[in-house]
Design brief:
The chain is of the alpha/beta class. The chain has 16 helices and 11 strands. The mean pLDDT is about 95.
């Protein structure tokens, strides 16, 4: 059976699997490989490093694949040139996460790209649809990086119901294999957005030491906090926190955030040096609860193929047993 959904039709892709636009990790090489495997690769524009973005847009243009670009929306409000630069390269989609999507959605659609909005609550989902979003990503708190506390299992169908199927909904957070894809489709999603599983691939731009930490971790080894945001001097507004793999730095400061804030200058310098060196006893490996489902570093193509094949088998068995 083929997993044809509203998402695959809208993006004209074979498989309903999207690469999460992980800041700096989801580069041109990884995005292109996910697209070539039949999914859809989204560059991690993140906070808006223009030098990095130009470089990766140039690289992916030479690869002749369809792609998207994802941004933390607040960064575009500060650097509107980033969206201009992106739209000049004719991406198939632009993904906006966190912050008000207006008026960016209108500009994206006027340029001929699809507007994907990531949301964490029903209210945000309704606002994004009203703003003209073509696709919604329902992000559960299980995922790595920034988010809030709602879990995928209840959030996805609630958003599907609340938006009355106005646009396709994509599930994100804690999904790393065919079981997660099959479950997401049963919840009413049209596909999945996958981060941590693609972080632990040979093509991902992350350091090998970070990928090995994901392989060794369980879901219990991750936690949501603001420790790493304080340490890199970029604290997000409430209720957003960041999920990372626990390390010595988190264990030292979790529950002592006020004290960490008071020493932010000294600890910030120490943290920045650790990031530069790849010292992940201090620097964060941003990964979600699905770390516990990941046991090896694989090519991105293998991840997509195994995920889809397993989901097809499980859904086929469920249909046969019904």
């Amino acid at each position: 059976m083929a997993l044809r959904t509203r998402l695959t039709q809208l993006l004209d892709i074979r498989h309903p699997v999207l690469l999460a636009p992980m800041d700096l990790v989801a580069d041109a090489r990884l995005a292109a490989e996910v697209t070539r495997a039949g999914g859809f690769g989204i560059l991690g524009g993140g906070y808006g490093d223009e030098t990095w973005l130009r470089q990766e847009l140039d690289r992916i243009a030479d690869m002749d694949v369809r792609f998207g670009v994802g941004f933390i929306t607040w960064s575009m409000a500060r650097q509107p040139r980033l969206l201009d630069l992106t739209l000049e390269r004719h991406p198939a989609a632009v993904m906006l996460s966190f912050g008000e999507p207006r008026p960016h959605v209108e500009r994206i659609k006027r340029a001929g790209a699809l507007a994907i909005c990531q949301v964490q609550t029903v209210a945000l989902a309704k606002d994004a649809v009203a703003a003209g979003a073509d696709l919604l990503v329902a992000q559960g708190g299980e995922g790595g990086g920034h988010g809030i506390s709602r879990g995928v299992m209840a959030l996805v169908p609630e958003i599907v119901d609340a938006t009355k199927d106005a646009v396709p909904v994509i599930a994100a957070g804690g999904i790393a294999d065919g079981r997660g894809l099959a479950a997401a489709l049963m919840l009413g999603a049209s596909g999945v957005l996958v981060g941590t599983r693609f972080y632990a691939t040979t093509e991902a731009a992350g350091m090998d030491a970070a990928k090995e930490r994901i392989v060794r971790a369980t879901g219990d080894d991750t936690a949501r906090s603001i420790v790493f945001d304080i340490s890199r001097r970029n604290v997000w507004p409430s209720p957003f926190t960041g999920r990372c793999i626990r390390n010595a730095h988190m264990e030292r400061w979790l529950g002592r955030e006020i004290e960490l804030l008071r020493g932010a200058e000294e600890e910030g310098a120490r943290y920045a040096e650790a990031r530069r060196k790849g010292d992940f006893d201090v620097a964060a490996v941003i990964a979600g609860e699905s770390s516990g489902l990941i046991h090896d570093v694989l090519p991105a193509r293998v991840v997509v193929e195994r995920m889809v094949d397993d989901a097809e088998r499980r859904l086929g068995r469920a249909a046969a047993a019904a």
